[in-house]
Design brief:
Elements lengths: L2 E8 L15 H5 L7 H17 L4 E4 L7 H6 L6 H11 L1 H8 L10 E4 L9 E5 L6 H4 L2 H11 L6 E4 L16 E4 L8 E6 L20 H10 L7 E5 L2 H4 L10 E4 L2 E5 L6 H14 L5 E5 L6 H7 L5 E4 L5 E6 L6 H11 L5 E7 L2 H4 L9 E7 H6 L8 H14 L6 H4 L2 H17 L7 H4 L1
Parallel strand pairs: 1-2, 4-5, 7-8, 10-11, 13-14
Antiparallel strand pairs: 1-15, 3-4, 6-7, 9-10, 12-13
Bound molecules: N~2~-(3-carboxypropanoyl)-L-arginine.
Length: 448
């Protein structure tokens, strides 16, 4: 049976703004308070989805969330009508209003961890929504994420959904941003690679000194248990705490894997040799041949990686067995990174081509091509069971582009977030979107 990696990209929501909300994420911090352009952000994301579809890749999408999250503000004690809740929050606690307006659900690599059916004990595709509990503005995403994933992957014969892990720091879970899967073919059993930043219960593992390590070992192990993965099909590795302190807040800022290839920076991990050996052994047991591609610090520094997002790229398999790397425009702007990429694609190795995309609106909040997509490996039968409304087609691209043009603003600052009219605009846009994507009622305003 045929199998595919389907990339589901997050559609950027109408409140996209630069709130400076993510301590440890260099771009989010340095672009704080700049004015954003939600319309351009959404169109940049859609252009990437369309381009990948046109190249023959399977492409889907995940809907954005209802923002401002008035219910979240009510839980924090703001009362009255929806407009009053927003105005009171703006007056008394602007940072909480900004957090409740974040369009951060666009970075769907953090929506969930996904294990394909070939890896799981019950032969279903498993999803665990990420609790994202390191940052308040992201911790409020998972209830709607779960409903949206449930509406996309509804068939219980093929899909199993798990609620987010307990919402405490010890189980901090950032989803697929810290998870990669290696395999010979997408429909065959693979090796799932979980990368954690710290251990909450075992002090033998070092922690970063400055910035938070968002993913814990205990969260990764819990997800592997929930998904019914076998010991032989899992490898755990620790992120180098020193790179977290340099702005590598997720592992997908410093490594990306696909098929039998791991493309990573020399400084990405702790105990790298042991980890590579374990990956090599376990991938061999499922019939594959592991191909690590290490980028030396002499060619590209960690700082270059953080600024250019070289590793926050999409590594895609092509029909001839070679791979294509989708990188953000910022890679072309960094001479060392761009030189490295020219050498890499010209070397006769497995990565043969680089394609560049302008994702500046998302990049300025620390979200590159890889952050914007959730990978789901599916066989033909499972793909046929996915809600067809969320699979990209040329007509859907047209209607989504027009939908964005109709509903999105082209400028957004902190003051705009305090405008109660914005909530009404967002709700009417999302109500229409659920009809376009045939999702049913997934948003709080549609349910309550
Ligand atoms: O969680 N930025 C996101 C970026 C997520 C990137 N995802 C992956 N690497 N997979 C974050 O830090 C910034 C929002 C703001 O500051 O307005 C933000 O949430």
């Amino acid at each position: 049976m045929k199998s595919y990696e389907v990339n589901f990209d997050g559609l950027v929501g109408p409140t996209h703004n630069y709130g400076g909300l993510s301590y440890g994420n260099v771009a989010s911090q340095s672009n704080s308070q700049q004015s954003s352009n939600p319309k351009e952000a959404a169109l940049q994301g859609l252009a990437k989805m369309k381009a990948l579809m046109d190249m023959g890749f399977q492409q889907g999408m995940l809907a954005p969330q209802e923002r401002p999250d008035v219910a979240a503000l009510r839980r924090l004690g703001f009362a009255g009508s929806d407009a009053q809740v927003i105005q009171r929050a703006a007056k008394e606690a602007m940072p909480l209003l900004v957090a409740s307006c974040s369009a951060s659900s666009m970075w769907v690599a953090n929506a969930a961890t996904v294990s394909p059916s070939a890896d799981t004990a019950d032969g279903r595709v498993h999803f665990t929504a990420a609790n994202l509990n390191c940052k308040y503005h992201r911790s409020i995403e998972h209830p709607t994420t779960s409903r949206v994933l449930g509406a996309m992957f509804a068939d219980q014969q093929h899909f199993a959904h798990h609620a987010a892990l307990p919402a405490v720091a010890q189980f901090g879970d950032e989803g697929a941003a810290n998870h990669t899967r290696f395999c010979r073919a997408y429909g065959e059993a693979g090796v799932e690679f979980f990368v954690f930043g710290r251990s909450a219960f075992d002090s033998r593992y070092p922690s970063p000194q400055k910035y938070p390590a968002r993913q814990t070992l205990e969260a990764s192990r819990a997800v592997a248990r929930l998904h019914g993965l076998s010991e032989e099909g899992v490898v755990y590795a620790q992120q180098n705490p020193a790179v977290i302190d340099q702005g590598v807040f997720h592992n997908d800022v410093i490594a990306v894997g696909n098929g039998e290839v791991l493309f990573y920076h020399e400084d990405a991990f702790l105990d790298t040799d042991r980890m590579l050996a374990e990956l090599g052994d376990k991938i061999a047991k499922v019939g594959g041949k592991f191909q690590p591609v290490c980028v030396p610090r002499s060619a590209v520094t960690v700082d270059d990686a953080v600024r250019s997002y070289l590793f926050n790229s999409q590594l895609l398999s092509r029909a001839d067995g070679s791979m294509l790397l989708i990188v953000p425009e910022e890679c072309r702007g960094n001479e060392r990174v761009w030189n490295y990429l020219q050498g890499l694609t010209g070397s006769g190795g497995v990565i043969r081509e680089v394609k560049v995309f302008d994702l500046k609106q998302s990049m300025q909040n620390g979200g590159g091509p890889a952050c914007l997509r959730l990978r789901v490996a599916l066989n033909e039968t499972e793909l046929a069971a996915v809600n067809p409304g969320v699979i990209m087609t040329a007509p859907l691209y047209e209607s989504l582009t027009q939908w964005v043009e109709r509903h999105y603003r082209d400028r957004m600052t902190e003051n705009d977030l305090a405008d109660p009219q914005l909530l009404l605009e967002c709700r009417s846009a999302l109500d229409e979107l659920t009809q376009i994507l045939k999702l049913g009622a997934v948003y709080p305003f549609q349910i309550n």
